[in-house]
Design brief:
The structure is a single chain. The protein is an alpha/beta fold. It has helices at 34-44, 74-82, 101-109, 120-131, 138-141, 153-163, 168-182, 197-213; strands at residues 2-4, 7-9, 23-27, 48-50, 54-55, 70-71, 86-92, 95-100, 113-117, 143-149, 190-193. Strands 4-9-3-10-11 form a five-stranded parallel sheet. Helix 6 runs antiparallel to helix 7.
Length: 215
């Protein structure tokens, strides 16, 4: 509380800081439910925030710099690659996308967990980048990687076909990619099988809460 004109005014409670801020990397085949689970986590826990990536593509619609993406020129992006500033980056459809170490570190220093919804190639790049950092670096210390798996490839195919949004050639491509991605499960510290959405979400929460309390 503080005193104002001889009256006690109750100040809003300070935002609770996680005991151990995390950089949470979540990967999964398309159709495994990764985005739904990540969105639930962000909705329930205000201290869990999505990482803001950099891109060289132009803003779309109402996208704002620093909120949806950091919009960089290709020259600046390539300079940052050369300087080793990205934890991961990739070129997709002619444009570059990437996650800056400084962006993640700043967000964690503010007391937030940083969530990256990323593919297995990006996760592998991040592990490689972290291996070069000082073990005391908060980003390295807070790294937690989780793979979301479908119960089986048969169930995954049913889910993809159930969407009714993809052509047959696209479904076959997603299934082929999923098979290759599933071979990377052992690279992750945690695996969650999404057979039931609520059960999978509770498992995801348990991982995050447990990791937060670790030193």
């Amino acid at each position: 509380m503080k005193l104002n004109n001889n009256e006690l005014i109750e100040e809003p409670p300070a935002k609770p800081r996680p005991s151990r801020p995390l950089m949470i990397v979540v990967s999964a085949p398309s159709g495994a439910g990764k985005s739904t689970l990540c969105d639930q986590l962000v909705d329930e826990f205000p201290e869990v925030v999505y990482s803001v990536s950099c891109t060289t593509r132009a803003p779309r619609g109402d996208e704002k710099d620093g909120m949806h993406y950091y919009f960089l020129s290709k020259k600046e992006f390539k300079t940052r690659i050369k300087n080793g500033e990205f934890l991961e980056h990739a070129k997709v459809h002619g444009n570059f996308y990437g996650t800056l170490e400084d962006t993640v570190l700043y967000t964690m220093e503010e007391g937030n967990h940083v969530l990256l919804d990323i593919d297995v190639q990006g996760a592998a790049q991040i592990r490689e980048s972290l291996s070069r950092l000082d073990p005391r670096n908060p980003v390295r210390r807070g790294f937690t990687d989780i793979f979301i798996s479908p119960p089986s490839m048969e169930v995954l195919e049913q889910r993809l076909r159930g969407r009714g949004t993809d052509e047959e050639i696209a479904i076959k491509k997603r299934l082929a990619n999923a098979k290759a991605e599933m071979e990377c499960v052992a690279e992750y510290s945690f695996q969650i099988v999404n057979d039931n959405l609520e059960t999978a979400y509770q498992e995801l929460k348990t991982v995050i809460l447990t990791q937060t309390q670790m030193g």
